[in-house]
Design goal:
This protein has 336 residues and is α+β, with helices and mostly antiparallel strands. It is built from ten helices and nine strands. The protein has two domains: 82 residues, Phosphorylase Kinase, domain 1 (2-Layer Sandwich); 188 residues, Transferase(Phosphotransferase), domain 1, CATH 1.10.510.10. Helix 3 runs antiparallel to helix 5.
Length: 336
């Protein structure tokens, strides 16, 4: 089954700097750079996107269940952006995209992709947003030439948790977290931004929210069961992503969707694979605090950020030393 692509970026290397903010060197693994514009509150304009932007027909950055994402440029400023063109067949489709706009209007964080503009016409709505060019995190998992270390995974998961913590503080659930919905800022750094708020929902404690969508292998048990979803639903997905980044394996994936869903409901997963042999105990403990069937027992995004795996600098130094030794051993083997 072909995986659903969301955005995938060609190797374009420009990121317009924000005035007064330092631009990060490619090797800098500090926080992700902010969008090259201030946070805006966007309302869909009833005019054509082409009046203000040049949308590239050839440079397609990716696509998914909604339509396609194209590279585009604002005519007045030359600012490079991404245009997500969403086909809307009826009022229901339009309302769903307007929900995405409303959600993005509330999210101002460096690890969440920012909305710049929106246009509504008869058959589609175009969302113009921040452009980054490092490709999907998914591509790094499956790329054999890209050696993803435990320390890399820590940096990725930390930022995912920071983005999710902000969403949850704003009472918004993402509900579609997966490696395809996490973009790398560029090819060289470990900086990421979460994208695709098409399935995101506002959490209202008094209204019980049930959902029936998402990608089977990333679904939390409560989604599979059509039970109530809440903040821990996103945290289950963080557990799945951490497992995948550390091992390259999908914890619940069966031979077909039914088997995958059964594995999720039985919470059937383990860390016995050889891929976990050299992974720290802290990492294993972190995953085991998220992949729990009972959602109220999972740790929150704030608790995850305080967990030793993400916060213990001594552990991080130890992993760095191990990786250096491992690399030099590999070099020795090559030179022998």
């Amino acid at each position: 089954q072909a995986k659903e692509k969301v955005w995938s970026y060609p190797n374009l290397k420009e990121m317009a700097p924000v005035k007064g903010k330092r631009t990060l060197a490619p090797t800098d693994d500090g926080p992700a750079p902010p969008a090259p514009f201030h946070h805006r509150i966007v309302t869909a304009k009833q005019t054509a996107v082409n009046s203000l932007y040049t949308v590239s027909r050839t440079e397609i950055l990716g696509g998914g269940r909604f339509g396609q994402v194209h590279k585009c440029e604002e005519k007045a400023t030359g600012l490079k952006l991404a245009a997500k063109i969403i086909k809307t067949r009826g009022l229901k489709d339009k309302d769903e995209v307007k929900n995405e706009i409303t959600v993005m209007n509330q999210l101002d964080h460096v690890n969440l992709i920012q909305l710049y503009d929106a246009f509504e016409s008869k058959n589609d709505i175009v969302l113009v947003m921040e452009y980054v060019d490092g490709g999907e995190l998914f591509d790094r998992i499956i790329d054999n030439n890209y050696n993803l270390t435990e320390l890399d995974t820590i940096l990725f998961i930390k930022q995912i948790c920071e983005g999710i913590r902000h969403m949850h503080q704003m009472y918004i659930l993402h509900l579609d977290l997966k490696p395809e919905n996490i973009l790398c800022v560029n090819r060289d750094t470990k900086q990421i931004k979460i994208i695709d708020f098409g399935l995101a929902r506002r959490y209202k404690p008094r209204e019980k929210l049930k959902v029936n969508f998402g990608t089977p292998e990333f679904l939390a048990p409560e989604v599979v069961n059509y039970d109530f979803v809440s903040f821990p639903t996103d945290m289950w997905s963080v557990g799945v992503i951490a497992y995948m980044l550390l091992s390259g394996l999908s914890p619940f994936l069966g031979d077909n969707d039914a088997e995958t869903l059964n594995n999720i409901l039985a919470c059937r997963w383990d860390l016995e694979e050889e891929e976990f042999q050299n992974i720290s105990e802290e990492a294993k403990e972190f995953i085991s605090k998220l992949l729990i069937k009972e959602k109220s027992w999972r740790i929150s995004a704030s608790e995850a950020l305080k967990h030793p795996w993400l916060s213990d600098h001594k552990l991080h130094l130890r992993l760095k030393t191990q990786e250096k030794n491992c690399c030099s051993d590999a070099q020795d083997l090559v030179t022998q």
